[in-house]
Amino acid sequence: MEEIFDIANAFDILQSEKLEGDVIFHVTDEKTALLKNAGDMVVRTADGQTAIDVYAGDEKTRDRWRKTGGKIAAWMKAHCPKSAGLDCGPADRRELLVGLLLGAYEFSKYKEAPKEVCGPLSVCMDKAEFDEVKIICDAQNMAREWAHEPASVINPWTLSDRAEAFAQVYGLNCTILDDEQLREMGAGAIVAVGQGSKTPSRMIILEYPGTKPGKPVVLVGKAITFDSGGLSLKTVAGMPTMKYDKCGAMAVFGILRAAACLKLETPVTGVICAAENMPDGGSYRPDDILTSLSGKTIEIRSTDAEGRLVLCDGLTYAQQHLDPRCIIDYATLTGACRVAFGTTRAGCMCTDDAVFSGLFASGEKTQERIWRLPTDEDYLEPLKSPDADLKNSSGAREAGACVAGMFLKSFIHDGMPWAHLDIAGTAYHMEGSAYYVPGATGFGVRLTVDWLRGL
Ligand code: BES
Ligand code: MN
Ligand code: ZN
Asked: Of all protein residues, whose CA lies closest to atom 18 belonging to ligand 1?
């Protein structure tokens, strides 16, 4: 099981006091005739030694250093030197290292091993700073790696096995509720979503106690290990990538790992709502009426609006059993949010201005950016049902992200600070970008860790 926690990058990145290696990178922010655009490189070779100047550009942002790190990582992957050293120059070292560590990641475990071994890359910087950034990025890369695993490998049952091993390694308390226990408890919504699968639903609760006692921040993650749509089956074009419908929960694993390794003060509890949404003779159906853990009944309009169903029981469980200081949920909830914001920002619905502004600020700082969505009661109108307390989908496309968020909000008790992050767009990129290869990004890990540290 060890290798599922130690995610190997394409090359190792080590901390060093000395600048050494076959290749030496020099980061610079001085424009020259040859270094005109951000990311430009000048390579000079003499006596088997290569020196590379890397131009960071003149953008006055933190992200330019991450992008520069991403450039260097891409060069390492492409040229595979035996050893390399990095002179950070004027860079913000932390962010340069973030770009390197995220940029060095690739999902390669199902590919033939490369013939050459690259690296390591030694980075001249302070050890304590290096270790801290590495903890966070390793946690984010683990979230990415797990997100990439197909549904033939990660289903609600194998995920709960992983969670148990994870809890052991990181010293967390772990409780797993299987579908029997969930049914008995009255969590009819999460049970229904998983009932068409060979591996029915699980709820996984992971507790990091913190170093300062107090109420926990509770993180609720959507873990649909595959979203076929169920009987409201997705189209041929709509179904691929739906292994990524567990990205919200993978971010929660990453955050918990970083919290434990950094020994954060604040207690953090994760609630993972795991189910596989499949069509079958036993599946839940459109027109079914479910009773959720809250007691509210839900009429099913679309079995493809399953995320809000697993989450509403997770949110209720958190409020009934975990005494949260505040709740944040992470979910690849709506295609509408992906359409609205693309892969640039996550949508956020929030009942507490202080929580929102904290998350927003951490988003700007880490480049895991969010944008607030409205919470007017009008958005709940389309979910009124003649036969039940709520329906799970309006059947219309208008304001899809807001309507879905309002469904969740109707399970939040008055006065409970709550933020919902719809990461359907940001959780994975098919194109890749400056420091992300195509695929899962681990969005939410750096954002939340930054916010937690400031609490
Ligand atoms: N997992 C999807 C949302 C999604 C779509 C995430 C595309 C990432 C990319 C979610 O379960 C879903 O199917 N939502 C429906 C809701 C609708 C039936 C109300 C959607 O967005 O179409
Ligand atoms: Mn769906
Ligand atoms: Zn889904």
From this structure: 305
- Of the options 3.40.50.1240, 3.40.220.10, 3.40.228.10, 3.40.50.2000, the CATH number for the domain spanning 7-125: 3.40.220.10
Report which protein residue has its CA nearest ligand 1's atom 7: 335
Ligand 1 atom with the shortest distance to the CA of 302: 18
Amino acid at 191: V
Task: With cut-offs at 50, 70 and 90, classify the pLDDT of residue 356.
Answer: very high
191 touches 200 (CB < 8 A): yes
Nearest alpha-carbon partner for 163 in 210, 194, 207, 106: 207
Q: Hey, which of 233, 276, 304 would you mutate to test ligand 1's pocket, going by the most ligand atoms within 8 Å of its Cβ?
A: 304
Task: Average the pLDDT over 29-51 and give the result.
Answer: 95
Question: What is the pTM for the complete model shown?
Answer: 0.98
Residue nearest to atom 14 of ligand 1 (CA): 334
Kindly state the average pLDDT of the residues 447-452.
98
The ranges assigned to domains in the chain are: 7-125, 142-453
Name the residues annotated as catalytic: 234, 308
Question: Half-sphere exposure (CA, 13 Å, Cβ side) for 420?
Answer: 32
